[in-house]
Q: What sequence folds into this?
């Protein structure tokens, strides 16, 4: 009999195992879910590039040390009428079950979050409530394993903004999960801003389940972190639901940013649109992995996925991996991926009108990324994201 | 004065311009006519500062100063304007935003103050109206989905607003029906005089019925082979380019 191959534990894995044993008794609620999630992590370890889903982001190599213990609270926004906000600890202690939005998806980063989650919120938007102002979550870098679960009642609508920020020059890591459970006809806009510190390892996950007629627009706006991976797991639970998944990525230096998504059309008549745009300067590396699954009974699914990258630096790179797994025969699905430099002919045209090269480049980059922001309906929010793009480009010009 | 002196130009090792010499005086409208492949568009790109070309010999002087080492934007700020044969589509950049960026960049390069938003709007609207440009078009992304005629009118609008000292019009008549041609030509004629020099590059004499040049130059195999008055254009229309190409 051949001996079983046992991979050596990395220092980060060993530290995580020791920490879980030491901390588990003090973690709030969901003991069974935590234990099961942790066992899955222990069995598989941190994923290396041999694991397909992590091929471009080798977590085994990248996570050099375990995340430190986090703060215990995530500041709650003021709850508008029709919205209740409870701390995660309180909800879990009261028997609340996390992970329902994950559907059939399994992922080790989410498992680690489930095992260690401590700070977080459970937000409930009552059926029929239209929340006018965006709910804003400010996530500081002291937060390590945050989990925010939002239940949006039937026909309710809300905009949720998460802003992740942290100090530059501090090598911290974070692993945050947001679960969105959309009721029938609920409408949600979710904007995640990754403005983490320049040495951070930023792991984040959006898990969403869409009931019939629900509509979700989620934008991952990413410019921070040394290494960032944002995953989206979307499951269609009811018919005629609509998904609009978007990404704006601006990276430079040696930044690495990975957008990985799995869109699972489990029921018929679902619509999904994915539009991800990446601008990579210097030696930065962008990754897009998008998988659309159409289950055997999910007829009349309409899915279109696009990932476009602009490489500004000579050493910048983009890895695009769109995938369609279609098991139904009456569907419309397409994907496209492009990658290239700015058009010299367009630059010449703008320069011939008097714009210096850097300004001409900035105008073209702003136009390229600006299109992705069009789905953000709150004008002030859209303007603030545009301003971040302009700022990023101004810093590039100044360099 | 815009002087092109003994200009030799190559692209990817292929020689396109072969000792071209030409002078455009302030206030003068010169036309260059020539068959396809004679190097007309190359000449316009080299004057405007496109980087793909290598000048192996000769010089281009604007008011006595060589412009060969200048970037395209510096040449624009110095007073050169190229109306493109095929204006580029710029998705995602509203025409108005682009016009403002161009005018401000040139004002800044020349050390002038930028127009106030109100003056800018009035100036653009006024110039657009004269060219029959619908104000809604100014909100659309630059040239995206515009017809051939609309694109050419947009070039003339830019030319009007940027107020250059020397204009190069590259095949401005291509793709235009007779009505569009008339509007474009009127726009160009309105900018004549006041010391402004123009170089009108065309394959056909038709455009020169509407923009009557002071001088006509015939170009073949990368250089000027004959110069004369407006009557030269009519001769060419009648006899064709064959004699000149053979002689060159």
A:
């Amino acid at each position: 009999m051949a001996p079983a191959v046992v991979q050596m534990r990395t220092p980060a894995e060993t530290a995580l195992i020791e920490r879980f044993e030491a901390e588990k008794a003090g973690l709030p609620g969901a003991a069974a879910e935590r234990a099961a999630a942790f066992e899955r992590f222990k069995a598989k370890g941190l994923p290396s590039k041999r694991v397909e889903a992590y091929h471009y982001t080798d977590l085994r190599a990248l996570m050099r040390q375990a995340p430190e213990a986090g703060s215990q609270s995530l500041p709650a926004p003021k709850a508008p009428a029709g919205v209740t906000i409870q701390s995660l600890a309180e909800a879990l202690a009261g028997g609340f079950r996390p992970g329902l939005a994950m559907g059939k998806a399994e992922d080790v980063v989410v498992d680690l979050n489930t095992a260690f989650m401590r700070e977080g919120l459970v937000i409930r938007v009552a059926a029929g409530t239209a929340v006018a102002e965006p709910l804003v979550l400010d996530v500081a870098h002291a937060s390590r394993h945050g989990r925010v679960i939002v239940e949006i009642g039937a026909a309710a609508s809300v905009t949720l903004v998460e802003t992740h920020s942290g100090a530059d020059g501090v090598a911290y890591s974070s692993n945050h999960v947001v679960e969105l459970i959309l009721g029938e006809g609920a409408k949600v806009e979710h904007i995640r801003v990754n403005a983490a510190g320049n040495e951070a390892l930023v792991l984040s996950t959006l898990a969403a389940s869409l009931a019939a007629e629900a509509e979700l627009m989620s934008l991952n706006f990413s410019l921070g972190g040394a290494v960032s991976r944002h995953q989206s797991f979307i499951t269609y639970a009811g018919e005629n639901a609509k998904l609009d998944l978007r990404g704006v990525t601006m990276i430079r230096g040696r930044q690495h940013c990975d957008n990985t998504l799995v869109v699972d059309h489990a029921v018929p008549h679902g619509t999904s649109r994915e539009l991800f745009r990446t601008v990579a300067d210097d030696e930065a590396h962008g990754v897009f992995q998008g998988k659309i699954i159409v289950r055997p009974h999910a007829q009349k699914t309409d899915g279109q996925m696009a990932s476009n990258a602009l490489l500004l630096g000579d050493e910048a790179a983009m890895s695009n991996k769109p995938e369609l797994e279609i098991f139904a025969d009456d569907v419309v699905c397409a994907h496209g991926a492009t990658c290239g430099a700015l058009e010299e002919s367009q630059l010449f045209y703008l320069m011939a009108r008097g714009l210096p090269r850097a300004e001409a480049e900035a105008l073209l980059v702003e136009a390229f990324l600006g299109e992705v922001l069009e789905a953000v309906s709150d004008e002030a929010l859209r303007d603030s994201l545009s301003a971040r793009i302009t700022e990023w480009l101004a810093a590039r010009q100044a360099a | 004065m815009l002087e092109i002196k003994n200009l030799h130009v190559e692209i990817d090792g292929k020689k396109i311009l072969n000792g071209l010499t030409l002078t455009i005086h302030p206030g003068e409208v010169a036309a260059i006519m020539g068959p396809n492949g004679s190097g007309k568009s190359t000449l316009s790109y080299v004057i405007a500062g496109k980087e793909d070309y290598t000048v192996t010999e000769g010089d281009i002087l604007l008011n006595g100063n060589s412009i060969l080492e200048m970037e395209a934007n510096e040449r624009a700020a110095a007073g050169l304007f190229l109306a493109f044969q095929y204006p580029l589509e710029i998705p995602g950049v509203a025409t108005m935003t682009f016009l403002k960026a161009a005018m401000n960049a040139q004002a800044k390069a020349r050390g002038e103050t930028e127009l106030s938003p109100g003056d800018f709007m009035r100036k653009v609207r006024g110039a657009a109206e004269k060219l029959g440009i619908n104000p809604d078009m100014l909100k659309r992304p630059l040239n995206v989905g515009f017809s051939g005629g609309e694109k050419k009118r947009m070039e003339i609008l830019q030319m009007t607003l940027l107020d250059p000292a020397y204009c190069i019009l590259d095949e401005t008549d291509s793709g235009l029906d007779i009505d569009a041609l008339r509007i474009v030509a009127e726009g160009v004629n309105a900018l004549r005089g006041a010391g402004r020099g123009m170089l009108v590059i065309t394959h056909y004499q038709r455009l020169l019925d509407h923009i009557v040049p002071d001088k006509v130059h015939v170009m073949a195999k990368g250089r000027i082979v004959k110069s004369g008055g407006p009557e030269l254009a009519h001769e060419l229309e009648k006899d064709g380019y064959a004699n000149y190409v053979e002689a060159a």
About this structure: The helical segments of chain A are 11-23, 31-44, 59-62, 88-93, 108-116, 344-352, 357-373, 379-398. Chain A touches chain B at residues 343-346, 348-357, 359-360, 363-364, 366-368, 370-371 (CB under 8 Å). Chain A has two domains: 77-341, 343-399. The first strand of chain A starts at residue 83 and ends at 87.
